[in-house]
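Weekly modeling sync, notes
Attendees: S.R. (lead), two postdocs, one rotation student

Agenda item 3: backlog of single-chain predictions. S.R. asked that every request posted to the team notebook include the full sequence so nobody has to chase files. The rotation student volunteered to paste the first one in as an example of the format we agreed on. Action items at the bottom.

Example entry:
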Amino acid sequence: MSDVVKYLGEKMPSELGMRVTRGTQRPVLPPTVDNFVAVPGMHGAWDFGAYMGPRPLALECEFGTRNSFELQRRINVLAAYLLGSDGRPRTMPIIFNNQPDRQIMARYSGEISLERIAGLGKFVLPMIAFDPFAYSVYESLDINVDSIILVDSDVLVDTGYTFTISGPGSYAAYNYGDLAVAPVVELSGAFSSLNLSIGGVTFSYLEPFTGNLTIEFARKLVYSGSTNLLHKTNASFGMLPPGTSQMMVSGSGLNINLDLRFREKYATTG
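Predicted structure, as returned to the notebook:
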């Protein structure tokens, strides 16, 4: 039988001498964190919506070895693999075989109880993804007409995420994921003023600029090299919605190349 997991971190389960079986539990969605207030004398509660909590991933695994000595060796290898050099659990990508175009970042959390029968060892590997969503294994700039893309991936071969801008204009931006994402925008060139609208929110750089500029929408950072330039902006950052949307660029003295970097974001892992 084939593994449920294609990659656990940088390695296939078979490289660790183990197999992830089909009993593995993969919740369709992570548990919710509900925000509500119970009011005395009122039925029910006021609902203030919810967020998604961390996603648990219980991977049912087994070692199949010839004897107990080889079993112990493989246990030692796995234990060391799950930890960083500082002895703390390390976060790694997990890719499932049935959706090899997306990954979820998770780490060991809990404890492992191993059932030993001679050279056979069965156990549940408890992993947890504190970012509960899955992301494309491809970055947007990796996708072009020459890319080797998995057949299940929803992409167009003529998709482009690099733009040459010499004046105000509208540019199609494709997000093939299920959810909105916060991109990284990398600019090179010069402008006197710049307005960049993504997802209906307009980011403005308020002074003339020449050089290389990076705008991280998720972390709300703007910098050139090691210089923080956030104070020269209006600090407004949008999200790239799923599907096709228009990225609006305006300003004066525009002579720039723009790279739009992100990974598609998905509700499910596989």
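Discussion: group reviewed the output briefly. The chain has two domains: 5-132, 140-266.
Action items: rotation student to repeat for the remaining queue; S.R. to check formatting next week.
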